[in-house]
Amino acid sequence: MTLTPIELLKANAPTTRPVVALSEGTDPRVVAGALAAHHAGVADIILVGPEPEVEAALQAEGASAGNGISIHDPAQSSLTETFAAEYHILRKHKGIDEAKARQAAETPLVYAAMLVRLGHAAGTVGGAVHTTGDVVRTAIQVIGMKPGAGMVSSFFLMYPPKNAQPGARAMLYSDCGLVIDPNSEELANIAAASAASAHALLREEPKIAMLSFSTKGSARHPSVDKVINATNILRERHPNLNVDGELQFDAAFIPSVGERKSPGSAVAGQANVKIFPNLDAGNIGYKMTQRLGGYLAIGPVLQGLAKPANDLSRGCSAEDVSQIIAVTILQALES
Q: pTM for this one?
């Protein structure tokens, strides 16, 4: 059975615990999840926010700063001046002057991202309060893109329940949270990034299904052509990857159906990476798998950034926070 991110880190904890910066250090769920990750021995934590409010949130959990739990108040931190100067350099071409750069550096999202950019933290997590747009925009502006990535996309890790039917397996779904209607080129980029993410986080060789409402020409439509073209681009650029498409979900997931609809495929019926043709399909698909299938959904996780920064659902739980912290650390260890 595939281990969840927290379980992976417990089993293979790094000698030195990485530091993760939480930009919403006053939110009770964030604090509880951060403390759980710290108590599990997988991370040291920086909670970003007004110091009195963060202290109160810690006290509500019976905890306090110290021993691997730090509070950074951007309005008082000795690092803020350096962060403001760096932000000014990054954004002055967009008309950001020194005063606006100082204001930005005092916001928790920018401050936490700067901790990562300048090496004070291995990664950052936000989104329990802020929107996905705010989290992603700040990450791109401050941390920047990974060379050669082409774009930032997202994915969910999906883990089957303990009482799952035989054949159920951990999977990676992409893109379910960010790119609304990728073209063929973008879809191929998403698939390539997702393959690397599956290798790092599931610790399995990726078997990539390019999903559609058609399998191997069973239907004709421009949206099917998009998936076929993306599959061809991916094969051309990454000939060593196991990829098949276009496939319907049942052909990608159920061995008997996969053998019938795509005979001889090394992916059909066995796929652990599902690439959805657009955000409608991906978002609906992961929520149905989670709510009807009882799968644990961890994400949205961002890929394509120079250093890890991850988003949370605003409906997240403390358990979601601790798992995303673990994901962020695993990404940092792979980079």
A: 0.91
